[in-house]
Amino acid sequence: MSTKGRKLTVATFVLLFLLTACNQPVDTGSSNTQIMLAAYTVPKEAYQKEIIPAFQKQWKEKTGQTVTFKESYVGSGAQARAIVNGLEADVAALSLEGDIETIHKAGLITHDWKQRPHNGMITRSVVAFGVKKGNPLTIREWQDLTKPGIAVLYPSPRTSGGAMWDINAIYGAGLKMAEMETGKKDPDRGRELLSAIQKNVKVMDNSGRESMTTFEKGLGDVVVTYENELLLRNMEQPLYDVIYPKATILIENPVALVDKNVDKHGNRAVVEAFVAYLQSTEAQRAFAKYGFRPVDPTVMAETKDKFPEPEWLFDIDYLGGWATASEQIYGPQGVWTGIVEGKKGS
């Protein structure tokens, strides 16, 4: 073989070696690894200021690896669609079960994510009202949001999981109030309450975080949002009164490892450890610090004075579960769809 031929053979071998090496899983055999976290907007501070740094420290001490994070924070529904459309997230930490199921149905999550403790949930909250300090308009209950001249804010359910929780809370409150008065749920009461409040909604932003930003700019008399969004704003100084209506919904927020992306990236060990860490006592205390209700019973007991229990609290099962609620409220003939399109929903 000529010298030139030998040089080409060596060069080809080196190139093939490098390409092969670059496609090998980067896990505990390397000094560095990476996690791509795709989350809804609301827990951004908890992740960036507490949870990610604590996990990085723990993982470094355990394995010697430095783990870096790429992060994306947008509305939950938009985030789910981004993952389905090619965002290579290793972890989906979203607002609601249905958004995780969107990724699952696309074939990207292949395991039973609800088999984790707490059915795969990592935080809880409730839907509450935020009003200006001192509550100048004396807003106490959902009916107060139907009064003429009251400017209401909540985001759009087309992009925001938080908005779906808000709308579920309103519709469910109508059912609950009817049940407490008559002994039976009345869908008409739910529709009437939702329709009356929707007439007073001035802006529907893309996410719960954007709705809070709009409220902070001085637009609106009341923002319907996650309790934790309001507690976060009040951490350093009390900016808003947090109002808990008697009837409201318990919010539960899921997380799941995205199998197809993890297998492509070869980082399953560190991603599984991070997902497990989110339910640890340490992470649950961090979530509680930023206003989220813990799923861990021990941490919830430690923080119970921070989180009032609304009198007529209900969960998604009260509305028949997510599949039923999605169809009856947001489907083509759904209640909310009918209201915003100017026709009577089913």
TrEMBL record:
Keywords on record:
Periplasm, Signal, Transport
Query: What InterPro entries does this protein map onto?
Result: Thiosulph/SO4-bd
Q: Which first-to-last residue range defines the signal peptide?
A: 1-23
Q: Which GO terms describe its biological process?
A: sulfate transmembrane transport
PROSITE patterns cross-referenced by the UniProt entry: PROKAR_LIPOPROTEIN (PS51257)
Gene Ontology molecular function = molecular carrier activity
Q: Kindly list any coiled-coil regions of this protein.
A: none
What family does this chain come from, according to its entry?
Belongs to the prokaryotic sulfate-binding protein family.
Q: What is this protein called?
A: Sulfate abc transporter, sulfate-binding protein, putative
